Amino acid sequence: MSFGACLSSPASLSLLCSGKPSINGSRISASAEVPDFLSADWLQSRRKRPFGPRLSFSAEEAVQHQLDALKYNDQPRQDYGIEVMYRFAGFDPFERSTYFGRFFDLGQFERFRRIFHHSTYRVLLGHQERKILSSLYPKENCYKQRVWVRGARPEEEEIFQFTMVQRVGGSWDGYWLTESLLHDGDCFSGGLAY
User: Fold this and answer.
1) Average of pLDDT values for 64-83?
2) What is the superkingdom listed in this entry's lineage (predicted)?
3) What does the alpha-carbon distance between residue 89 and residue 91 come to, in Å, rounded to a whole number?
4) Which of 8, 17, 82, 141 is the most buried (most CB within 10 A)?
5) Which domains does the chain have, with CATH numbers?
6) What global pTM score does this model have?
7) Mean pLDDT for all residues in the chain
8) E strands, the chain, where?
């Protein structure tokens, strides 16, 4: 049976032409014929998407969210704060990066995680207090912020500098990503279990 032959019947023409489809005077519900491909908990699972960069975040908010994630690092699971930092990281995982000051291969999350557990950067994990020392926009799409952090252990305090870069073009256009997180001293002078 051809498509033209199907349209020859008055019932099929009324289905195509009228705003209110009916067959023999009864109304047809469109939702009954359209399959539902989304699960019942789709909306809830969408709300639970991993926390990371958002287009609506300013550079200051992006730094604040990263520091908050590190403060509560092990909530809701172990090293979740470091995962958030990894999502904000603006380096190419297929190239060596100067994210921590020196050239490291940070493409694997485990290598990135280990550096945060190094003695100098671990002050950020579960820190008690922090204070913004300075903020600066050296360029339109670059933001730097120095932060003093007091850790959870006695006499543990360090100063770090965040460098945020706003991407232009591509899928991350307009997002603020972390170009580097630097310690004020030579934090790797004692070596690093990398």
Assistant:
1) 95
2) Eukaryota
3) 6
4) 82
5) 3-34 (no CATH), 58-183 (3.10.450.100)
6) 0.71
7) 82
8) 22-23, 26-27, 129-139, 142-150, 157-166, 176-183
